[in-house]
Design goal:
Radius of gyration: 17 Å
Largest sheet: 5 strands, parallel
Shape: globular
Helix content: 55-70%
Number of strands: 5
Length: 204
């Protein structure tokens, strides 16, 4: 089985992926942040490095999905291949940070790759307001994220909501991070686990 966690920067994807993988004994696949050779450059000069970064993420996630399906284990994945294509790349394009030529090239490649893989069996979307995102980004203190602007997070949130509203590739669970603070208490985490149980195993 393939479970994927989606959400904006700072929504808690990595934390929830880790917590659920421990609870269910699932294998966890994390976003390639620490070893990403483009991320620091991207936050310094988005226009120059946006295409390179998006291609890197696309390739990384495509390979992850191929591995997930090949292994046959239950895997929980931190961020999906769809978020780059429907949220991050179009946002960079609309902000003038990725050329139309690069965006069209990127999207053609995404369409080919996505046609070759299956969507997740369950998508968990972490919905969070911009103040919550800012608080959680500041709390983890990654240096390269110091330059993230509020309007950038707001634009991403709008695109996430539009994508989720039209998502029809499989089962989906929406977790309101403003109200369910699963990082702070086991009781809050249990609320998420109960809902995951209901989606996957029909338990109420």
């Amino acid at each position: 089985m393939h479970i994927a966690v989606a959400g904006n920067i700072g929504s808690g994807k990595t934390t929830l992926t880790e917590l659920l993988s421990k609870h269910y004994k699932w294998e966890a696949n994390y976003e390639d942040v620490d070893d990403n050779p483009y991320l620091n450059d991207f936050y310094e000069d988005m226009q120059r490095w946006s295409f390179n970064l998006q291609i890197y993420f696309l390739n990384s996630r495509f390979n992850q999905i191929l591995e997930i399906r090949k292994q046959g284990n239950t895997v929980i994945q931190d961020r999906t291949i769809y978020e780059d294509a429907y949220i991050f790349a179009p946002n960079l394009h609309s902000m003038g940070l990725m050329s139309t030529r690069d965006f069209e090239n990127y999207f053609t490649l995404f369409n080919l790759m996505s046609s070759l893989v299956q969507p997740p069996d369950l998508l968990i979307y972490l919905r969070a307001s911009v103040p919550t995102l800012v608080y959680q980004i500041q709390k983890r203190g990654r240096k390269y994220e110091d330059n993230i602007r509020l309007d950038y997070l707001k634009r991403l949130n709008e695109r996430y909501e539009a994508w989720i509203a039209s998502y029809n590739l499989g089962r989906m669970l929406v977790v309101d991070v403003d109200n369910i603070k699963f990082t702070d208490s086991n009781e809050e985490l249990s609320k998420v686990i109960d809902r995951v149980d209901a989606e996957l195993f029909g338990l109420f």
